[in-house]
Amino acid sequence: MIQEEFFNYVFTSGGLAKLKLEKPSSLQWLNQLSQALEEKKFPRGHNLLNIGQTPEHIYFLKTGAMSGYYLDADGKPTTLYLWCENSIVTDIAGYMNETPSDLRIDVCNISEVIAIHRSAINSIIDQYPDAFLFLIQIQGHFLKYHRERDMDSQTLTAKDRYSKLHSTSRKLGTKFTKKSIASLLGISPSHLYELMNEK
Predict the structure, then answer these.
(1) What single-letter DSSP state applies at residue 73?
(2) How big is the CA angle at 22 (ends 19 and 27), to the nearest 5 degrees?
(3) In this structure, are strands 104-117 and 47-49 parallel, antiparallel, or unpaired?
(4) CA angle 78, 79, 84 (to 5 degrees)
């Protein structure tokens, strides 16, 4: 069941089983969340979120690829996320604060997602306050990503950062533009080509 895949990812497989065992009441709000999930398909080039738009959805990317970027002080796009299969996609800061996003999210390849709207989550949390744990877990995934990214930028060379990124998805080049990959790594496209040729 695809909902189980999503929840296993959000809570981690062991964490979900533990939650159900230790808090049987969680089955009620998990079931409500499951019923609120929608399956959607987006074409390549679709704009999922625009700068200035308040995020209203949380997505779980089943298949495909998406990128998230912001504009720096000079108006230059800088990549912050390259999402592949089994990823949670949203602007978490804008979503949690209900504020206009400084992030643009685009679909890079035909993508299938599971989506849940803010109104559905809020309604469930109103009924079952413990369901806020769902959002806490999602925040945790983003916190872990940014912490690791910050540590990598301080401790790894560009070559090591590229190798690490390449190890997570060997089809990066077919999913994302070289410009986006270079931007995520904080290097120039020409430097990226050098690193790729060393592989």
Answers:
(1) T
(2) 55
(3) antiparallel
(4) 170
